[in-house]
Amino acid sequence: MATIDITEADFDTTIKENGIVLVDFWAAWCGPCRMFAPTYQASSEKHGDVVFAKVDTEAEQRLSAAANISSIPTLMAFREGVLVFSQPGALPAAGLEQLITAVKDLDMTAVHAKAAQQRSTTEV
Description:
By secondary structure, the protein is of the alpha/beta class. It has helices spanning 11-16, 31-46, 61-66, 93-104, 108-122; strands spanning 4-5, 20-26, 51-56, 74-79, 82-88. It contains 5 helices and 5 strands.
């Protein structure tokens, strides 16, 4: 699967309707972003079961602000609608593969339980 561009309008739907979604927040003027792009694209072609999305931070400033993006590139990983990874900086190919494996291997029952516990403590 190739990478897809997502916007504020389809961000939530993309995250909620797909099992694993990686999101690369980038900008055309960003050198590290341009260096990471081929690695991200190559990985997308190897993992058809993962959605590889890209958000142009210049075009999607409100979405970038809502996601608290302060440095690019920033890579986020979502599984079953839950943010499970967020880190600025370009990953090398091996690091990206390790991340994908780790996200696929997560115990989502435990992740959902922890998320529910965090929600209940913040709703007081």
